[in-house]
């Protein structure tokens, strides 16, 4: 059935081997693989949990962690909740995550109470905001950072496992030696003030891995959290391909439901489309237009690249995507399949949509 997201497991394993080589052997960091972009797909989870280089498996949703926490534990992987836990999911957080990322004192207190009820010690990583302005205690607020660390150390059922930063995802701030050195300085301050040793200083996600190749990752950083670099082979700071990786482990296939020659410019007054946007159209004359049975409900047209270089994506509504196939050397007909490589947004949407089937290659 189509549309279908085909996952090449052998290529994913090759990508995982490659990022593990960079992260662990070259960078001396532990490896946390983030599973959220494929919604903790069971075949991908099996691959990751079996890989000897993976130390942690992480997701932003407790529902996903619940599906694989037992398998991860059996195979020696610690599970991590990346998103700050909601109060309504603290029971699941303690049950299925060995570690969670946190920044709010009240949440920490409630997390401690829940860990006590479950007779567990829950590990906490404090988030420090170095300027990307997503989650974390702002790095200039010394009082708040020390207070949060002290609170975790005092709470009976929590362990202060480390500190971490997130960059690039919201503010698009690129990790550099200078800003990541601030995280290292905070690790040293916390360790010196409280006489402890933090187990994890996590220097970010797939946008930080390029620093290893440049020899610019601060020495005290000892963990990276990798999702897109593993799945798509990307260094997300500058969009370059990482050595040994491929960007076509995930292929979206969709079926043509209409194929007609029509004008390239709509006829009449242009208003707004179904998503409230006023579109711009290029006059290409009369073109051969294919409609494929997928749309914005299932994917991101701006995050797709046709494998056939003679195909252009013109736009999409919720469940139709319009292609210009005029220049293609393939004699398309109704019922034929058009294939696409995906960027992060397209991959995330396809993996989330219940209308996109999944298929697998390799093992």
UniProtKB/TrEMBL annotation:
Superkingdom field: Bacteria
Record-level GO cellular component terms: cytosol
Keyword Calcium (UniProt): no
Record GO terms (molecular function): alanine racemase activity; pyridoxal phosphate binding
Record key words, sorted: Isomerase, Pyridoxal phosphate
Cofactors (names): pyridoxal 5'-phosphate
Database matches in InterPro entries: Ala_racemase (IPR000821), Ala_racemase_N (IPR001608), PLP-binding_barrel (IPR029066)
A Pfam family that the UniProt record links to this protein: Ala_racemase_N
Keyword Lipid biosynthesis attributed: no
Residue span(s) of domain Alanine racemase N-terminal: 7-227
Gene3D superfamilies: Alanine racemase
PANTHER family xref list: ALANINE RACEMASE, LYSINE RACEMASE
Protein name: Alanine/ornithine racemase family PLP-dependent enzyme
Annotated source species: Zhenpiania hominis
């Amino acid at each position: 059935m189509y549309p279908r997201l085909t996952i090449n497991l052998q290529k994913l394993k090759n990508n995982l081997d490659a990022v593990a080589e960079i992260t662990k052997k070259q960078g001396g960091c532990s490896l946390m693989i983030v599973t959220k972009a494929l919604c903790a797909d069971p075949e991908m989870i099996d691959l990751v949990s079996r890989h000897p280089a993976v130390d942690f498996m992480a997701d932003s949703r407790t529902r996903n962690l619940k599906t694989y926490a037992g398998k991860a534990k059996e195979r020696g992987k610690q599970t991590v909740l990346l998103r700050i836990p909601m109060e309504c999911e603290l029971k699941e957080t303690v049950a299925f995550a060995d570690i969670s990322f946190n920044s709010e004192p009240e949440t920490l207190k409630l997390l401690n109470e829940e860990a006590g009820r479950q007779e567990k010690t829950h590990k906490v990583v404090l988030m420090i905001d170095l300027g990307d302005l997503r989650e974390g205690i702002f790095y200039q607020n010394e009082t708040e950072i020390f207070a949060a660390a002290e609170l975790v150390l005092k709470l009976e059922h929590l362990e202060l496992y480390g500190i971490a930063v997130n960059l690039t995802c919201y503010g698009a701030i690129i990790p550099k030696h200078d800003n990541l050195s601030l995280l290292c300085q905070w690790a040293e301050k916390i360790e010196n003030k409280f006489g402890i040793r933090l187990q994890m200083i996590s220097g970010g996600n797939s946008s930080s891995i390029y620093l290893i190749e440049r020899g610019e990752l601060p020495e005290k950083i000892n963990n990276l959290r990798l999702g897109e670099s593993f799945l798509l082979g990307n260094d997300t700071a500058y969009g370059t391909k990482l050595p040994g990786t491929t960007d076509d482990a995930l292929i979206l296939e969709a079926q043509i439901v209409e194929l007609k020659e029509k004008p390239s410019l709509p006829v009449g007054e242009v208003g707004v489309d179904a998503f409230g946007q006023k579109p711009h159209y290029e006059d290409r004359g009369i073109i051969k237009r294919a409609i494929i049975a997928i749309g914005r409900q299932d994917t991101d047209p701006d995050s797709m690249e046709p494998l056939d270089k003679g195909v252009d994506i013109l736009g999409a509504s919720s469940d139709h995507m319009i292609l210009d196939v005029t220049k293609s050397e393939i004699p398309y007909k109704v019922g034929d399949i058009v294939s696409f490589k995906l960027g992060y947004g397209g991959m995330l949407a396809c993996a989330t949509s219940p209308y996109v089937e999944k298929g697998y290659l390799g093992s």
